[in-house]
Design goal:
By secondary structure, the chain is mainly beta. The protein has a domain of 74 residues. Helices cover 2% and strands 46% of the residues. The chain contains two helices and 32 strands. Strands 1, 27, 28, 29, 30 and 31 form a six-stranded mixed sheet that branches. Strands 2, 3, 4, 5 and 32 form a five-stranded antiparallel sheet that branches. A hairpin with a 5-residue loop joins β10 and β11. The termini are far apart.
Length: 392
């Protein structure tokens, strides 16, 4: 499925979190921080203000102890995350200086109606907030052999009001729920050994934030071998409008065997939720990561795409030029190949935040230049989740 390429790892020096304040005393400009970043680790939550030059300063009280979360989501007032108990979504209010305080907790199995759900279902998350910040979606994998996406309305006090849930299907390895950049549709993508080939589940986002299944479709590029179909990695990314990126590889539908054709494809969603790509195998770039793609993210400018191998793959990350509906094009080689990257974030001041299990890398990234900022990376051992909110 993938081609192994040789690459050179960059030399980096990890800085301990305790040293951040000493090294970034002048990190915030007179106009204040341009972004705020939150990072989870097993027993703590780290929070930083980011200056226009990409320097980080710990917010008052950070790191926040006795907070164990994953799958962070954020709006202007609240930070949300899946609890380590596997069943709850916690809400934290965000003060004006970035400090957090627990505000509410929601039992994500409230709609199950069966005590067996607490042992039969997969853990809570990933969570995802819509692009206006009023609805939270929670993905639950393999609950009674079915994957579900739940919709919750975010109330003024941070509590979550249950709206509805929609099923995908059983026995599939599913992507987390992806909300289209224009906020109109939600998507899940799945595959299995028993059913080779990508299966898409498409839902309309109603006016109250609830989800409704729609009869929409997606097309695939022409395979190299007649009769083949395409499977997908478990990651997807959206731009601020109606484009989406998927990593697809060609497979034999009878055996599920890959023939090695693999690439990044840009899709466009129409007003009915249908996904269409005009990209071909010939123009879709092949990632240089020797692993499946576990995480990807498109910049707010819609000019750049970052991809990483995810939790189980020590393969670094890579950045591409994103060109809307047109073919994606190569930008960088593999960066930090000795690290496992788990999540990316961006702010509106051209900063890319690349979180590995060792620490947080901060890059200045535009379509013409990309470089790691002074003082990066920041050492955050066992980091697992990242969320970024622009303040400008």
């Amino acid at each position: 499925m993938l081609t192994t390429l040789k690459f050179v790892a960059l030399s980096v020096v990890l800085l301990p979190v305790a040293a951040i304040n000493a090294q970034t005393k002048d990190s915030t400009s007179s106009s204040g921080p341009v972004a705020r970043v939150y990072v989870t680790r097993p027993t703590h939550l780290d929070a930083f203000d980011v200056s226009s030059s990409g320097k980080l300063t710990a917010v008052p009280g950070s790191p926040f102890s006795n907070i164990s979360l994953s799958h962070l989501s954020i709006n202007k007032m609240f930070l949300f995350g899946a609890s380590d108990d596997g069943t709850h979504i916690f809400t934290y209010s965000i003060s004006s200086n970035g400090a957090v305080k627990k505000a509410a907790e929601t039992d994500a199995f409230m709609d199950c109606g069966d005590e067996d759900c607490y042992t039969a279902c997969g853990p809570v998350g990933p969570t995802q907030i819509d692009h206006t910040g009023v609805t939270l979606y929670n993905y639950q994998d393999h609950c009674d052999d079915t994957a579900w996406t739940q919709a919750f309305q975010i109330e003024d006090n941070g509590k979550l009001k249950y709206l509805n849930r929609v099923p995908t299907t059983e026995d599939l390895a599913m992507s987390s729920t992806v909300i289209l950049g224009n906020n109109s549709y939600a998507y899940n993508f799945g595959s299995s050994f028993e059913q080779p080939g990508t299966q898409s589940f498409i839902f309309k986002r109603e006016s109250d934030g609830s989800l409704s299944p729609v009869d929409a479709t997606m097309n695939f590029p022409k395979p190299e071998d007649a009769g083949d179909t395409f499977d997908n990695d478990a990651a997807a990314a959206v731009d601020p409008t109606n484009h989406m990126v998927l990593a697809l590889y060609e497979v034999d539908p009878e055996t599920g065997d890959s023939n090695g054709e693999y690439g990044l494809f840009s899709y466009t969603a129409d007003s009915h939720g249908n996904l269409k790509t005009t990209n071909t195998l010939a123009d879709a770039p092949t990632p240089e990561l020797d692993s499946e793609i576990g995480t990807m993210s498109i910049s707010p400018s819609a000019k750049l795409l970052a991809i990483g191998g995810g939790q189980l793959n020590t393969q670094g990350f890579q950045v591409f030029h994103f060109n809307g509906a047109g073919p994606i094009t190569k930008y960088t080689g593999v960066l930090h190949s000795s690290e496992t990257f788990v999540e990316f974030g961006w702010d509106k001041s051209n900063h890319l935040y690349a979180l590995s299990t060792k620490g947080l890398h901060i890059y200045s990234a535009t379509s013409t230049s990309i470089k790691e900022e002074e003082g990066s990376p920041i050492s955050i051992p066992e980091a697992s989740s990242l969320i970024v909110r622009s303040l400008n």
